[in-house]
Amino acid sequence: MNCDRLTLGVIMGTFLICWLPFFIVNIIRSFFPGRVSDVQFVAVTWLGYANSTANPIIYTILNKDFRTAFKRILFGK
């Protein structure tokens, strides 16, 4: 049970770290056009996309059942 809470906390924290900059930049762009460059916008967008890459890594590290199933899928029995 405690491990599940840790996993959920790490997943939620990673989600916030990855997506919060994107939403902040979008708010800034709405109220102050031209203040955020296209490069910055693309960077925070890709940071958000990186969240999808981080999730399987987090689950593999923190969840033994997921790790076992993942190994079974990749390498067979």
TrEMBL record:
Pfam families: 7tm_1
Membrane topology: Multi-pass membrane protein
Transmembrane segments: 6-28
Keyword Cell membrane annotated: yes
Predominant subcellular localization, coarse grouping: membrane
Keywords of the record: Cell membrane, Disulfide bond, G-protein coupled receptor, Membrane, Receptor, Transducer, Transmembrane, Transmembrane helix
Keyword Cell division: no
InterPro entries: GPCR_Rhodpsn, GPCR_Rhodpsn_7TM
Biological processes, Gene Ontology terms: adenylate cyclase-activating adrenergic receptor signaling pathway; positive regulation of MAPK cascade
Localization per record: Cell membrane
Gene Ontology molecular function: G protein-coupled serotonin receptor activity
GO cellular component terms, semicolon-separated: plasma membrane
Domain G-protein coupled receptors family 1 profile: start-end pairs: 1-59
This protein's name: G_PROTEIN_RECEP_F1_2 domain-containing protein
Lineage: Eukaryota, Metazoa, Ecdysozoa, Nematoda, Chromadorea
